[in-house]
Amino acid sequence: DFQAKKADEEAQLEKIMEGLQEATAELRAQLEVAQTNLMVQEKAVASLQTEKESVATTVSLLQSRAEKAVKTRTQQEEKLQKLYADRDALRGTVSDLETHKNAELLKNIQQREKIIQECVQEENKLSVAIREAVTSAELAKATLQSQQSRTGGSVLVHKLMQAAKRGGALQAAGVHGRLGDLGTIPSEYDCAISTACGMLESIVVDTAAGAQQCISFLREFNLGRATFIALD
């Protein structure tokens, strides 16, 4: 009986063990599924943690950049304010310089205009002096030429008058003499009037035939040329 009871108990124990194994296998399967899900969840958590850290890093970087940008903007605004102040100061300086420069330029222009006026006046004086000198030179030249002409003309007239005397070659030519000598001209004006009035140097004769005789006489003795006025 003991053996039968033992065998029976062993059979029951084996059934229990088989039941436990089946139950354990199901639990192990559930455990494996749970472990697999846990691993997936852990990976997801790790990925989220990585993303969180990346986002945190990005946020920190953006905050740093934002702070730097704010600081840079503040510095730029300060520089801009300084530039505005420097610009206003420079405008004031430029305005002062322009005022001073304009005053200096006006003074220089006035001085130059004064110098130009003085130069113009001096030029006018020089022009007048030059014209007077030229006039005096021309008058002196004309006077000299007239004197030279009259010197030669006096010889010519003297020869003609000698030949016109009784018994001379031009006795019948009717020579009266130089026109300027036939009137009364003050000696101090004789040269000027003779220069202005060339006809006063002409020789007055009675007829054109007498003038032709005088011309032939001048040519014959090579006494020069003369202008004759015939009264006929």
TrEMBL record:
GO CC terms of this entry: condensin complex
Pfam families registered for this protein in UniProt: SMC_hinge
Any one GO molecular-function label of the UniProt entry: ATP binding
Keywords in alphabetical order: ATP-binding, Coiled coil, Nucleotide-binding, Nucleus
Presence of the UniProt keyword Nucleotide-binding in the record: yes
Family matches, as InterPro entries: SMC_hinge, SMC_hinge_sf
Residue ranges the record marks as coiled coil: 6-86
One of the protein's GO biological processes: mitotic chromosome condensation
SMC hinge domain: residues covered: 174-232
Name of protein: SMC hinge domain-containing protein
Organism: Spumella elongata
